[in-house]
């Protein structure tokens, strides 16, 4: 994204560096009107029966699915992912279905000890304006994360998408209206960062839901200071995987390679650190390299490459710079398609493997957000556990073992929000999603995510005899 003027921005496609879209930021008058529309819509939406809210959310998913080709094409151009991998609508639809299936139970009153004179219960109550701020890396699926629970729970949502992916947001706006969504209930607004911070600081929002970088999350959190605005922050990760001696290589290797390189490593839960028991290190590396060679790089709109570009030349330079620094510090780099990436353009980074790394290197401490697998050998469980926790981040971690009980014991001691055994780089729609430490706060998805879009109200009823 390039800002053209104070109120205009340009989307530069990383595919070829061309201009893909030009859009205008909302001015103060438009933002005031958006807030007024949300306040007006909230009065009726919170009174709308739950079944009707659910029906609209499900229809929204179907309308997004009907627009899957347009959404996929927009993603390919805006972020450079291969077109054949760009249909995220099944994920958005699944989130809607899962949360809709939980809704009746979540909104049932919860009884507490009562007697003949007093009845006690709680209810999940609704109503408020949510400000949802969406990242660019999974631009369709993340709309599901950010708007589904608030809408089902009777809130209205103002959606600000990344300036790298405005077309995705516009398609979602169209789909919600086609689904019969009432005016003002879900509004899409192109907004610059300064305007977003001012609105957050005004205290007008019940809650801010943010998916993005740690730096962006800090700004959002700071903007809420003194407002008592609730906030969910889903931020970055430096997610570790630990491969024990009893791991099933046929199962583990393809999933770990995918976890490192899928979406060019541009996922908050990408596997960025792999710890392998020293006894199996050489065999693991050989198998990992062989699998990684299947991950070809190519033009996102041509054929079926496994990876395309990263989001832009600046991001590519950051990734390459860290890998170069690691190599100068003694790491061994394996990048089978480096020449092919260079020929494609400045924004292309080939999947690569760094061996002989350690925690003195920035590649093992800082989020790279690129297709880089860093592999370090360890002496066993104790060293692996210590290294997995040696980070500021705390989003996900995985253990690869056939001893499920031992894997769970280890993960109990890893400071993360989501733990995997024999799986990685996966946000399960049935489970709450979020991190700890600088990876964020709060939870999205699952029952906990739906509850987080509500307020718990307690009722104390004293029965008075006539």
TrEMBL record:
PROSITE patterns: ALDEHYDE_DEHYDR_GLU. Keywords: Oxidoreductase. It comes from Sphingobium amiense. Residues 7-458 form the Aldehyde dehydrogenase domain. This is Succinate-semialdehyde dehydrogenase. The active site is at residue 234. The keyword Transferase does not apply. GO terms for molecular function: oxidoreductase activity, acting on the aldehyde or oxo group of donors, NAD or NADP as acceptor. Belongs to the aldehyde dehydrogenase family. Coiled coil: none annotated.
């Amino acid at each position: 994204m390039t800002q053209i003027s104070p109120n205009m921005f340009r989307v530069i496609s990383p595919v070829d560096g061309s201009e893909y879209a030009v859009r205008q930021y909302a001015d103060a008058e438009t933002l005031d009107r958006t807030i007024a529309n949300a306040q007006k819509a909230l009065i009726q939406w919170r009174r709308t029966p739950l079944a009707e809210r659910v029906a609209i959310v499900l229809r929204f998913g179907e309308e997004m699915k009907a627009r899957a080709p347009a959404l996929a094409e927009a993603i390919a151009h805006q972020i450079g992912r291969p077109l054949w991998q760009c249909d995220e609508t099944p994920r958005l639809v699944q989130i809607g279905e899962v949360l809709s299936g939980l809704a009746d139970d979540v909104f049932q009153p919860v009884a507490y000890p009562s007697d003949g004179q007093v009845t006690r219960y709680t209810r999940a109550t609704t109503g408020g304006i949510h400000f949802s701020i969406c990242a660019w890396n999974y631009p369709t699926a993340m709309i599901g994360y950010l708007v589904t629970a608030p809408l089902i729970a009777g809130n209205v949502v103002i959606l600000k998408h990344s300036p790298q992916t405005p077309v995705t947001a516009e398609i979602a706006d169209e789909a919600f209206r086609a689904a019969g969504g009432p005016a003002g209930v879900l509004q899409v607004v192109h907004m610059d960062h300064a305007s977003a911070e001012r609105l957050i600081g005004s205290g007008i929002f019940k809650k801010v839901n943010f998916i993005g970088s740690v730096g962006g999350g800090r700004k959002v959190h700071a903007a809420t200071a003194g407002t008592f605005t609730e906030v969910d922050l889903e931020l970055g990760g430096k997610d570790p995987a630990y491969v024990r001696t009893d791991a099933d290589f046929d199962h583990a290797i393809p999933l770990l390679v995918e976890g490192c390189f899928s979406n060019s490593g541009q996922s908050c839960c990408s596997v960025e650190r792999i710890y392998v028991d020293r006894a199996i290190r050489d065999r693991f590396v050989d198998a990992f390299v062989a699998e990684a060679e299947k991950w070809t790089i190519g033009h996102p709109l041509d054929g079926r490459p496994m990876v395309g570009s990263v989001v832009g030349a600046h991001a590519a330079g950051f990734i390459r710079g860290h890998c170069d620094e690691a190599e100068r510090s003694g790491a061994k780099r394996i990048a089978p398609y480096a020449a092919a990436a260079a020929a494609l353009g400045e924004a292309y980074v080939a999947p690569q493997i760094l061996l002989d790394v350690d925690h003195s290197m920035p590649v093992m401490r800082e989020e790279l957000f690129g297709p880089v697998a860093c592999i370090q050998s360890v002496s066993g469980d104790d060293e692996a556990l210590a290294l997995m926790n040696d980070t500021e981040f705390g989003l996900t971690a995985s253990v690869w073992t056939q001893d499920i009980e031992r894997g769970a014991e280890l993960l109990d001691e890893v400071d993360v929000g989501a733990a995997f055994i024999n799986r990685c780089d996966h946000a399960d729609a049935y489970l709450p999603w979020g991190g700890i430490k600088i990876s964020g706060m709060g939870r999205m998805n699952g029952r906990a995510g739906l509850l987080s879009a509500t307020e718990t109200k307690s009722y104390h009823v004293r029965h008075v005899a006539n």
